[in-house]
Amino acid sequence: MRKDYKTIREVVGPLMTVDHVAGVKYDELVEIHQANGEVRSGRVLVIDGDRALVQLFESSQGLQASTAKARFVGHGIQLGVSPDMLGRVFDGMGNPIDGGPKIIPQEYLDINGAPMNPAARDYPAEFIQTGVSAIDGLNTLVRGQKLPVFSGSGLPHAQLAAQIARQAKVLGKDEKFAVVFAAVGITFEEANFFMEDFNRTGALSRAVMFINLANDPAVERISTPRMAITAAEYLAFEMDMHVLVIITDITNYADALREVSAARKEVPGRRGYPGYLYTDLATMYERAGKIRGKKGSITMIPILSMPEDDKTHPIPDLTGYITEGQIILSRELYRKGLKPPIDVLPSLSRLKDKGVGKGKTREDHADTMNQLFAAYSRGKSAKELATILGDSALSRVDKLYAKFADAFEREYVSQGYETNRSIEETLDIGWKLLGILPKGELKRIRDEYLDKYYKPADGSEGE
């Protein structure tokens, strides 16, 4: 039986202390009923003997501690799930904010969930087409993978996130596909951009959106990604759908975690973040994947902006340990006008080899991927050498590699945010660019693929 406590001792900012409580659990939801009938909510942050420290979801302004009652509801934050969630927009607490009716839930799920049992995991091995050449061709996304995007302040990760959400699909099979999009701690302008883009392109019909704004409480920021993953688990493992989860921005989530940790007076770790940041991120990321015997899957693309473009900052550093690679956006390429400015050389998809090849993409994919990486790397080195010593210091072949690097950035990487390329188009563009180089330089591609696909750019034999 729920108890009402009239023992609210003090309210300071977003924190409230309730005395003489019994049977209260950490993370439990609390309803604060005021004398005028208004109800606010919060959750238990700390339990110290018979005293509970509660963090409010809403502002504490106007809260009368002397007349208010605290009611502990007996469970943590839950999300009511239903197939009707598709095409809807919710706030960070799972309440509809698109003007539509409330969802009639089939069941309520605890948003904290649990990471997948490693023994029950199925190995990711199926290609997901995002329509972005720098990802599909060189850092392939595989169903069930966790592939974060490392960005920087001011870089267009929002446009890339919207593009992937709009274009992503599973090839070759008529399977149910959905996108769960969580925007964490973003501005109203960004939220408006995502909602307009999803509505304009019709992507909202197969998506579930969770929007948490920068002026919303920190505790709601912590619940938003978990709401999204819980919705994805329901769609994937109860509705047999293949779900792509996009979360932006993980940095805002980690900052909210640091704020709550400071409120609980915990000993800070690196850069003031709590010592359990790695564990906390892992409990979210590891809920993605495939389970043996289940048709559905969860693929995750967390997006984070690196403070000061520093890859060694705790958030990208720990994320890189947990996930299977990273897509890195480059400020240098952004200044050059590339859209999207994906820096393919430091980017990595550790599972890409499992998702490419005959029957998945095309038989020449792995070879052309390796050759494009090698040629672009050598071309960038040639350009750097020319900057120091001048073009006259380059050999004829080095000049071709430098020409290749420029064309690669201009035609392969920079495709704009509205272009949706099939994997065949991406591979064909790669072969067109490789035609700039002599055939004898393409040592990473098997002869049968060279004979089938290679065409020299100048119309010669390419030797």
Q: What is this entry, summarized?
A:
The protein has 463 residues and is an alpha/beta fold. It folds into 3 domains: 3-74, Beta Barrel (Elongation Factor Tu (Ef-tu), domain 3); 78-355, Rossmann fold (3-Layer(aba) Sandwich); 364-453, no CATH class. The protein contains 12 helices and 22 strands.
Percent of residues in helices: 25-40%
Name the shape in a single word: elongated
The CATH class of the largest domain, by name, is Alpha Beta
Distance between the termini: 83 Å
- Percentage of β-strand residues: 15-25%
Number of helices: 12
Give me the count of strands.
22
Main beta sheet strand tally, sense and closure:
10 strands, mixed
Contiguous uncertain segments of 5+ residues: none
The total tally of domains equals: 3
Please describe what this structure looks like:
By secondary structure, the chain is an alpha/beta fold. It has 3 domains: 3-74, Elongation Factor Tu (Ef-tu), domain 3, CATH 2.40.30; 78-355, Rossmann fold, CATH 3.40.50.12240; 364-453, no CATH class. 32% of the residues lie in helices and 22% in strands. The protein has helices spanning 133-136, 157-167, 188-201, 218-237, 250-263, 277-285, 314-322, 331-336, 365-389, 396-413, 423-434, 447-453, and strands at 4-5, 8-12, 15-18, 29-33, 39-48, 51-56, 69-72, 78-81, 88-91, 107-110, 121-122, 127-129, 141-142, 149-152, 169-170, 177-186, 207-213, 242-248, 289-291, 297-306, 325-328, 348-349. The strands form 4 sheets. Strands 9, 11, 14, 16, 17, 18, 19, 20, 21 and 22 form a 10-stranded mixed β-sheet that branches. Strands 1-7-4-5-6-3-2 form a 7-stranded antiparallel β-sheet, with no helix packed on it. Helix 9 crosses helix 11 (423-434). The longest helix has 25 residues, at 365-389. The N and C termini lie far apart (83 Å). The mean pLDDT is 89.
